[in-house]
Amino acid sequence: MSFIVWQSKYETGVMSIDNDHRSLVSMIENLYSAISKGEGKSVIDDIVKGLSEYAIVHFNREEILMASIGFEGLEKHRKTHEGFAHRVNSFQQTLASGQQNISVEVVSFLRDWLINHIQNIDMQFVDEFKKHGII
Fold first, then answer.
1. Helix crossing, 103-116 with 74-96: angle to 10°?
2. Which pLDDT belongs to residue 2?
3. Is pLDDT at 3 greater than 90 in this prediction?
4. Helices (H), 5-135
5. Class (C level, CATH) for 13-131
6. What pLDDT digit, counting tens, does each position of 81-97 carry?
7. Which of 52, 93, 116, 125 is 20 to 30 Å from 78 at the Cα level?
8. How far is CA 33 from CA 29, 36, 53, 95, in A?
9. What average pLDDT does the structure give for the chain?
10. What is the DSSP letter of 119?
């Protein structure tokens, strides 16, 4: 059984952004699958490292696109990205301290982030992107 499944309601219509979001769904599913098998500790380091890399690439992509069209909500959106990066950093610090029992916390955070961020935050720029021909 899946923890989260990609649905059309998550699509922004911007291929590069949607592909990034699908990649995040894949990371969430990989972690959930490992947790279901009792193997969360064996993948959590790689997942959190991947999240850090994801944040850099994906958030940069979104912010560059927003800046290119003069999107009014850029600074507010950037702050939500900073919140995600801060949370991932705290996960990294927890892992570095030797605590490995954070898999459930991470997967829950990611599912909530994905659903809430896409549906409530990212959808705010969709119409503006389309108006400027960004697809």
1. 170
2. 84
3. no
4. 15-36, 40-68, 74-96, 103-116, 123-131
5. mainly alpha
6. 999 999 999 999 999 99
7. 93
8. 6, 5, 21, 20
9. 94
10. I
Residue type, 15: M
Euclidean distance between CA atoms 98 and 35, whole angstroms? 18
At 99, list the tokens: 């605590």
Query: What does the block give as tokens for 76?
Result: 């507010």
Global pTM?
A: 0.90
End-to-end CA distance of the chain: 32
Percent of the chain with pLDDT over 90: 88
How far apart CA 126 and CA 9 sit, in angstroms, is: 12
Domain residue spans in the chain?
A: 13-131
